[in-house]
Design goal:
gluconeogenesis; 8 strands; alpha/beta; binds phosphoenolpyruvate; TIM Barrel; Triosephosphate_isomerase; triose-phosphate isomerase activity; TrioseP_Isoase_bac/euk
Length: 253
């Protein structure tokens, strides 16, 4: 059985006290939703201490939205994976399309970030996805394959076993346009096939999340698909009832 995950990417939203309050609200109602689904929140760096403190004693894990490619040293403005791990982070989002698009992240710059994550026991939530032009040109399968090959194929089997993949079509992020469940399933199955060809049957255990305007209303259709193991949630992760409502989207046993 693959781990089902709903992860919230708060991006650059909320002030620290608001983030702590959001975490408290999620924790307060966590027991009203499926306990088998792992919940992760990824607040801005400035909120991590407070959010980790607020979630102590709960099963909700905390992740960061980025980490440095270097271990330590004269890298003004950067935050290392070791610092995040020392605070109590367990996950780190890497390769988000906003970081690729606005901050020039590439497969090349992501590889050392992945290495830093593993060296510090952080599990990467590695994002892939095509933009609108690539989708319209029918290149989505090829683009995602390349993104996976250039980074994930460089991992050892042990490292690979710790990775969560998030498929996030860029045209669906924050746009209100969701991939249809069939579009999501097509790519998720494609990703799993690529991973299986490289790493073998262990790829059947890899959690592959969908991200892109996922909400309580469309989560059930998406999560009903065989290879969709949960969601990486942006906008809807900023309201506790919506975030928890998405968790309710998994098929009932
Ligand atoms: C994201 O950026 O990871 C995301 C999925 O955003 P949204 O849910 O707002 O589309």
């Amino acid at each position: 059985m693959r781990t089902k995950i709903v992860a919230g990417n708060w991006k650059m939203n909320t002030l620290p006290a608001e983030g702590v309050e959001l975490a408290r609200q999620i924790a307060a109602d966590r027991n009203s939703v499926n306990p088998d689904v792992k919940l992760i929140v990824c607040p801005p760096f400035t909120h991590l201490c407070g959010v980790i403190e607020a979630l102590k004693g709960t099963d909700i894990e905390v992740g960061a939205q980025n980490c440095a490619a270097e271990a330590a040293g004269a890298y003004t403005g950067e935050v290392s994976a070791a610092m995040l791990a020392a605070l109590g982070c367990r996950y780190v989002i890497l390769g988000h399309s906003e970081r690729r698009q606005y901050y020039g992240e590439t497969s090349e710059s992501l590889r050392p970030k992945m290495a830093q994550a593993f060296a510090n026991n952080l599990r990467p939530i590695f994002c892939v996805g095509e933009n609108l032009a690539e989708r319209e040109a029918g290149k989505h399968l090829e683009v995602v394959k390349r993104q996976i090959e250039e980074v994930i194929f460089t991992l050892t089997p042990e490292e690979f076993s710790k990775v969560v993949i998030a498929y996030e079509p860029v045209w669906a992020i924050g746009t209100g346009k969701t991939a249809t469940a069939d579009q999501a399933q097509e790519i998720h199955a494609h990703i799993r096939t690529i991973l299986r060809e490289k790493f073998g049957e262990v790829a059947n255990e890899t959690t592959i999340l969908y991200g892109g305007s996922c909400k309580p209303a469309n989560a059930p259709e998406l999560f009903a698909k065989e290879d969709v193991d949960g969601g990486l949630i942006g906008g809807a992760a900023l309201k506790a009832p919506d975030f928890l409502g998405i968790v309710e989207g998994f098929p009932k046993k």
